[in-house]
Amino acid sequence: MAAAHVPHYGVGIPVRRIPAVLRALTGVEQRQGAISQEALRRSAAAVGDAYRTLRRSVRASPVVHTDDTSWRAGGELAFLMAFETEEATVYQVRARHRNKEGREVVPAAYAGVMVTDRGRSYDAQALSEVRQQQCLAHVLRSISEVVKTKTGRGRSFGKRLSGLLREAMELR
């Protein structure tokens, strides 16, 4: 396995090509999956420890930005959740996207400010004590959509509000 890992991690040869390299140089037959599984097994403890440390650092950070997106994992719908602080970015993939999954990283007792994209999962009662900042880009997008459909005072209010938020962002 060491002969498989050196060309991949040391030189940068893609894992999918390592079986052919091993066969050509040594005659050893090894499957790509076995090479990847061995690397995961050897690194599980160190990588797992580092990941748990990063997750704990999010809880201690004064500000955390969150963002989520859906994607496919093994052909099934899943959600990629990102938590970003000044020092770290932590990802997790979950089959469901509820506040429960978000609270795995940002607990209900979080003392900092959580900046969100205005997703419904962050409006949950369980997070009511967490100070939140709504992403102004998302707020501006919503205002822009409303302004398109309004006339008169509703439209002028939306345009004025949008202008004030943009000025605030510039000042910051």
Q: If you had to describe this structure to a student in words, what would you say it looks like?
A:
This protein is of the alpha/beta class. 50% of the residues lie in helices and 20% in strands. A 5-stranded mixed sheet has the order 3-2-1-4-5. Strand 1 and strand 2 form a beta hairpin. Helix 1 crosses helix 2 and helix 5 packs antiparallel against helix 6.
Note the topology:
Layout: H1 2-11, H2 18-26, H3 32-60, E1 63-73, E2 76-84, E3 89-94, H4 99-102, E4 113-116, E5 131-134, H5 136-149, H6 152-171
Parallel strand pairs: 1-4, 4-5
Antiparallel strand pairs: 1-2, 2-3
Helix pairs in contact: 1-2, 5-6
- The quaternary state of the protein chains shown equals single chain
On the 0 to 100 scale, the average pLDDT is 87
- How is the largest sheet built, in terms of strand order? 3-2-1-4-5
Q: How many distinct helices?
A: 6
C-alpha Rg (nearest Å): 23 Å
Beta percentage is 15-25%
Secondary structural class: alpha/beta
Q: What are the low-pLDDT stretches, counting only 5+ consecutive residues below 50? A: none
Estimated helix fraction: 40-55%
Main beta-sheet annotation: 5 strands, mixed
- Given the C-alpha coordinates, what overall shape results? elongated
Summarize the helix and strand pattern as letters: HHHEEEHEEHH
